Amino acid sequence: MPSRKIVANELAHVLRQISHPDRIRLLLKLQAGEQTVNELGDILEISPTRVSQHLGVLRAVALVETETQGQKRVYRLAQPELASWLIGGIDFIAHRLGRATPEDIDQAKQLWVAEAVDPAEQIDRAA
After folding, report:
1. Model pTM?
2. CATH of 3-126, one of 3.30.70.1530, 3.30.565.10, 3.40.190.10, 1.10.10.10
3. Which residue stretches of 1-127 are H helix?
4. Which of 25, 42, 53, 123 has its CA 20 to 30 A from that of 112?
């Protein structure tokens, strides 16, 4: 199989694994750094069971890594620039977001970029 076909197949496989709204939200939330399943579930309002299932899919394609720290397991992006790539990709699909205004799109991008800070800092800011 020619190398371009192999790479295209691999890329398509990874993109299929990303192509769920909850997985995209998880990847963007992990740009802030290591987080547990429960932390992610609370922030994103997704059950821990669903978070674990989605993280399992993302781990299978090496987008997310895990580490055990004492009694807890934390997850992080294997390549943090993935979140920036996803945010930047919004510009390529903005014309297809018929229900979202340009202001909605800009606000979503700004919020995701802002979430790249440490989760503890976000809690301090919200208080």
Report:
1. 0.79
2. 1.10.10.10
3. 3-18, 21-29, 37-44, 48-60, 81-93, 102-114, 119-126
4. 53
